[in-house]
């Protein structure tokens, strides 16, 4: 029965039907109309009661959730964390949900939690961070019987006889040449003999010879060898060619440069030679301010360089986002009747990671976790993006998803992956959260 029919029915009962120029229905018709009105009212009442029950259930869930959270003043924060000795602390905001990161100076290693988060209970997650001096000798870096002495941010090797180099990895053979002196004047006597060189080059030296009872013995300094049949000349040994791929491994991780009597290792731009003299260590241009990123961009250190990244919130129709941190955007409240807005992601987080080329797989590269849940289930998925075939998602617990690297990636390259975390209530979607991860793959394997 339409609303106009109900109004007409009421007017006829009140005997004011003459205004509309219509006749009142019969008694039977009135009874039928009244039953229809009763059904309509009952239907509206049932719908209202169902909506009211649903609203009460949601309010009860929110009350239970907030009851488990300790009450705190609006400006409450976690206690201040101390900066570890011989280290640094990154992050100044002490409010719930925010993180503080710790780094150690070169030569020190972190013991404790690298990242600690302020929890809703106004306590910090993880363990206190301490920077302890790294024992450079713990890995036994001195090869071939060499003894190691630990130093601050380094070590020193004392090599056994016959070995040289920063880690005693290079053999230093001494080459001898013996000739017989048949001169009767020197028979039975010992005398020193010098073989002069008209021109001495950095890679050529005169040998050191001595005569004992008519026999001449010639030797060269470490890193040189007798040149052919001429025992008076010592030529440099090219360690980079002779020993570069020896039993103990490569002399240099990157490039080997031969020098008079020895060699040295070199590294590509953006790296520096490590204390062991053969490895390459990345230079953090962001921490040492060796970058040209402007204030509106985020400096991301990569292996061998850096990237200046600008994080911007998405602009889409019917949905607006606000930047709540340098790497996070959150959705503004949606109008009640805007379904497209309510289905858009609640938040979008941006992360940037540096990865060496051909990193071994499978391995976990990133974790996505929910701090608190309103629904009864979480679902994780990797969305379609460039590099999707290299990654997969797996669960580590009820509230955490792990991004898994399936196969090595040859650099240099840049890949972007989007991880979606969906929150469900009785299998119905109540919120979506997107994490965008950009991987900068180095062209080197170190």
TrEMBL record:
Molecular function per GO: calcium ion binding
UniProt xrefs under SUPFAM superfamilies: Complement control module/SCR domain (SSF57535), EGF/Laminin (SSF57196)
Top-level taxon of origin: Eukaryota
Pfam families documented for this protein: cEGF (PF12662), Fibulin_C (PF22914), hEGF (PF12661), Sushi (PF00084)
Sequence ranges assigned to domain EGF-like in this UniProt record: 133-169
Cell location: Secreted, Extracellular space, Extracellular matrix
SMART domains: CCP, EGF, EGF_CA
Main location class: secreted
Signal peptide range in chain numbering: 1-21
Disulfide bonds: 104-131, 159-168
Keyword tags: Calcium, Disulfide bond, EGF-like domain, Extracellular matrix, Glycoprotein, Repeat, Secreted, Signal, Sushi
Domain Sushi, residue spans: 76-133
Keyword Calcium (UniProt): yes
InterPro entries in alphabetical order: cEGF, EGF, EGF-like_Ca-bd_dom, EGF-like_CS, EGF-type_Asp/Asn_hydroxyl_site, EGF_Ca-bd_CS, Fibulin_C, Nephronectin_domain
Keyword presence, Metal-binding: no
Similarity comment text for this entry: Belongs to the fibulin family.
Protein name per its UniProtKB record: Fibulin-7-like
Organism: Hemibagrus wyckioides
């Amino acid at each position: 029965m339409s609303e106009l029919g109900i109004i007409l029915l009421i007017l006829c009962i009140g005997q004011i039907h003459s205004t509309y120029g219509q006749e009142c229905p019969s008694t039977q018709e009135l009874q039928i109309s009244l039953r229809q009105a009763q059904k309509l009212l009952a239907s509206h009442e049932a719908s209202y009661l169902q909506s009211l029950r649903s609203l009460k259930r949601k309010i009860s869930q929110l009350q239970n959730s907030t009851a488990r959270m300790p009450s705190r003043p609006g400006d409450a924060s976690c206690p201040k964390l101390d900066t570890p000795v011989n280290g640094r602390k990154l992050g100044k905001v002490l409010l719930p949900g925010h993180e503080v990161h710790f780094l150690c100076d070169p030569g020190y290693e972190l013991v404790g939690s690298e990242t600690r988060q302020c929890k809703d209970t106004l306590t910090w997650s993880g363990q206190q961070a301490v920077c302890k001096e790294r024992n450079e000798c713990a890995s036994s870096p001195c090869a071939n019987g060499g003894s190691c002495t630990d130093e601050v941010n380094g070590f020193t090797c004392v090599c056994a006889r016959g070995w040289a180099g920063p880690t005693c990895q290079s053999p230093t053979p001494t080459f001898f040449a013996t000739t017989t002196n048949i001169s009767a004047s020197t028979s039975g006597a010992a005398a020193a003999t010098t073989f002069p060189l008209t021109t001495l080059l950095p890679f050529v030296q005169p040998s050191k010879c001595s005569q004992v009872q008519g026999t001449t013995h010639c030797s060269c300094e470490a890193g040189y060898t007798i040149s052919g049949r001429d025992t008076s000349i010592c030529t440099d040994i090219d360690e980079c060619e002779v020993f570069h791929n020896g039993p103990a491994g490569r002399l240099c991780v990157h490039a080997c440069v031969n020098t008079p009597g020895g060699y040295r290792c070199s590294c590509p731009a953006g790296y520096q030679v490590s204390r062991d003299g053969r490895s390459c260590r990345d230079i953090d241009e962001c921490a040492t301010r060796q970058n040209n990123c402007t204030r509106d961009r985020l400096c991301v250190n990569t292996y061998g360089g850096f990237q200046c990244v600008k994080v911007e919130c998405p602009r889409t129709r019917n949905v607006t986002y606000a930047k709540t941190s340098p790497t996070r955007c959150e959705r503004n409240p949606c109008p009640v009747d805007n379904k497209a807005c309510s289905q858009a992601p609640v938040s979008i987080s941006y992360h940037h990671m540096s990865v060496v080329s051909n990193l071994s797989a499978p391995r976990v590269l990133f974790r996505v976790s929910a701090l608190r849940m309103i629904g009864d289930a979480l679902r994780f998925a990797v969305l379609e993006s460039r590099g999707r075939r290299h990654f997969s998602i797996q669960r580590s617990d009820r509230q955490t998803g792990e991004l898994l690297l399936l196969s090595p990636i040859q650099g240099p390259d840049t890949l972007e992956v989007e991880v979606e975390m969906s929150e469900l209530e009785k299998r119905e979607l109540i919120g979506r959260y997107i994490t965008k991860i950009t991987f900068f793959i180095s062209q080197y394997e170190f």
